Amino acid sequence: MIRLLILTTVATSFKNFSFATAATMALRSVDFEVFGRVQGVFFRKFTKQEAEKLGLKGWCMNTSKGTVQGQLQGPSDNVENMMRWLRTTGSPSSKIDKAEFKNEKDITEYSFNDFSIRKDS
């Protein structure tokens, strides 16, 4: 009887698993660069906080060009949300002129253990 209950539960779980669920679990990676007033305004700190809130891994850093660049990895939906945040929100004192994204691709595993702030280039 217990075996039947376990088998029924497992079968029901698989039946409820859909392609939509699989799609949201797919991992995505993208490189980014944000232009505008993004240095000296805690942009990297807020980027790290937002990435961690969304469960993303990767890094960000200031560049000698006055931009912030980095890489994001995580579930596709969360990467999309972070890309929107980088385009439109940023830190409270920042002024984003534009955000560029490149090398967007599906990945099977993470390259990073967490989201970090790297030393300036």
UniProtKB/TrEMBL annotation:
Q: Which InterPro entries match?
A: Acylphosphatase (IPR020456), Acylphosphatase-like_dom (IPR001792), Acylphosphatase-like_dom_sf (IPR036046), Acylphosphatase_CS (IPR017968)
The superkingdom listed in its UniProt entry is: Eukaryota
| Catalytic activity, EC | 3.6.1.7
Q: Which reaction does it catalyse?
A: an acyl phosphate + H2O = a carboxylate + phosphate + H(+)
The answer to whether the entry has keyword Hydrolase is yes
Q: Where is the active site?
A: R44, N62
SUPFAM superfamilies reported for this sequence: Acylphosphatase/BLUF domain-like
Which segments constitute the Acylphosphatase-like domain?
A: 29-119
Record keywords: Hydrolase
What's a single GO MF annotation on this record? acylphosphatase activity
Leading EC class: hydrolase
Q: One Pfam family from the UniProt entry?
A: Acylphosphatase
Tell me which family the UniProt entry assigns to this protein.
Belongs to the acylphosphatase family.
What's this protein's name?
Acylphosphatase
> What organism is recorded for this protein?
Papilio xuthus (Asian swallowtail butterfly)
